[in-house]
Queue: 2 jobs
Job 1
Amino acid sequence: LTSSVQQMDSRGSFGSKLGVVLASAGSAVGLGNIWRFPTEVGRNGGAAFILIYLLCVVLLAMPVMVSEFVIGRASKTNTVHSYRVLAPGKPWVLTGFMGVLAGVLVLSFYSVVAGWTLNYTVESLTGQLMHPQDFAAHFSKFSAHPLRPLLYVYLFLLLTHFVVSRGVRNGIERYSKLMMPLLFVILLLLVAVSITMPGSSTGLTFLLRPDFSKITGSVVLSAMGQAFFSLSVGIGCLVTYASYFGRDTRLVSSAFNVCAIDTLVAVLSGFIIFPTVFSVPGMVPDAGPGLVFITLPNVFNTAFAHTPVLNYVFSGLFYLLLLLAALTSSISMNEIATAFIHENYHVSRHCSTIIVTSVAIVLGTACSLSFGAWADVKLFGMGFFDLFDFITAKFMMPLGGILITVFVGWYLDRKLALSELTNEGTCWCRAARVMLFLIRWVAPVGVGAVFLNQLMA
Ligand code: PFF
């Protein structure tokens, strides 16, 4: 352990506690919050779903997050090597490899939606979304185009590349500190406008009315999957980030802050989307990509028909918000594999990032084409985009969550775990014990039950 700590003194680290929270929250807050969460809530029983989601966050996802923090900070190295340091010669290292693979797969399909977002940001800022048109046709024409969506995927991956290749402090931390406050400001501005729109109360009712009759086993599974995806847990992303934490960073309270920020952003995004959609009589919120790329431009044009300036500003800011959120998340996905290649194969950080970006470009191309030229290419009955989404969110993340909590709760020396959780006994001893209980019992059993249930279904 000591030699690894010494060796890693030369690696990057976050410069401040604020940097730690903003970078980790940056990873968490993403497309998952702004369009996936509101859609899931609307479809699955409103406030009843939010309640189940909160339970999944606190009881299942937060313990996984804290466990990742423990592994990362105790080993001070990338997610593969961390298991070699903490469990030499044991097969635990496979959990690390699975994380690296999952990170690249998530990055590949995520960049497709991020690329669409980038295109819509450009289109809204250049005024192309400013006249009523058939937005469904507009979207399918764009996403099925053989070239245009690819260019935006590449552009987005290059933006991500730019940040990650600059390193931990000058890249990830610096840009998170810049982008996250901007994201909050835009978010609050949009909430202020949307809740004052006519008919906003119908939207809020749609979002918040609890309908417990909709809560079924598969809804609980969706809530758990959403919590894991939204908090970036289960694939070693936060192991990697925590390896850059300082000794004085409090792991339990940082995890709590990240979960709170992430949930707040998710709920506030619902406060933007539904009041806006319902401000137009007869409009119903679409599910999935359609909500953001078809329904919303439609709504913006109708709701602000008499005030084109507001249409321009509101839609421009909305897509910019989505883009910023996507970028702070994609850098964390890229960092998992970049740190691994850089440290394990002694390749420069710059070259490691080039390798990861190149692989993501190839796989991202396949995912993007599955909406157009390769729509008929199926593996296990799914296109590349759906396949990558399915195996990461429904399989690798929950499995990773079980392995990570079992590793910290049962394999790792209890004294080491407690010392990490309490910063050598200096803080929050009671919270640390409660957390250790969640890590040992609640999270692995809970995630395992939901996961098995799904495998059998
Ligand atoms: N948490 C991100 C979101 O909600 O959009 C997605 C994500 C980031 C998943 C990083 C996985 C990951 F490692």
Note: The pocket of 4-fluoro-L-phenylalanine is lined by residues 27-28, 30-33, 103, 106, 229-230, 232, 235, 237, 329, 332-333 (CB under 6 Å).
Job 2
Amino acid sequence: MIRANVEIVRIAVLASGTGSILESMFGAGLRIEVVLIDRPCRAREVAAAHDTPVVLVERSSYGSDFDRVAYTHAVVDALEPFDVDLVVMAGFGTILEKPMHDAYENRILNTHPALLPAFPGWHSVRDALDYGVKVTGCTVHVATLAVDSGPILAQEAVPVLPGDTEESLHERIKTVERRLYIDTIKEIIERGHVL
Ligand code: GAR
């Protein structure tokens, strides 16, 4: 087995939102070569503050006319010059198709704000609250073509508290994700699983 360390492994982070997980990754010393975003978002400012290239591959549409395969090819092409070993999704809002998984097979990670296989999809925090669960959490997993169902690498429970809103619960989950995701990424790098 080839051993590696966090200074060597070249990472692309895919983000669409506030970029708070991305921010923690910079703080943890991961070697982030590029941040790819699918829409203008705060993640762009986070990357710029760390002198890291940002590539915007903007979605042309959020409707049924969206050409997901063409978009995926554009993402693969945009990442290619950065020669990354690992792709890390941190709140990326576009499902990518087969060309991405062909290019980075078993080298795409995701964090999801629920205990998969419970509450997959984009509204997992709201869905967990609506269902009335007393415990939810987050899942770090390998991203596969089947959305939110790749091999699970780590999970941690987060209690739902009386009076929680979607925002308060999601923020409590993200506090865990910012630690668990980074610890898991470091662990798989140090085990030599991505080189
Ligand atoms: C995180 O909670 C992450 O799990 C979620 O987006 C948030 C990103 O937070 N991702 C998904 O829901 C993917 N299905 P951030 O923008 O503050 O880093």
Note: The two ends are 9 Å apart (CA to CA).
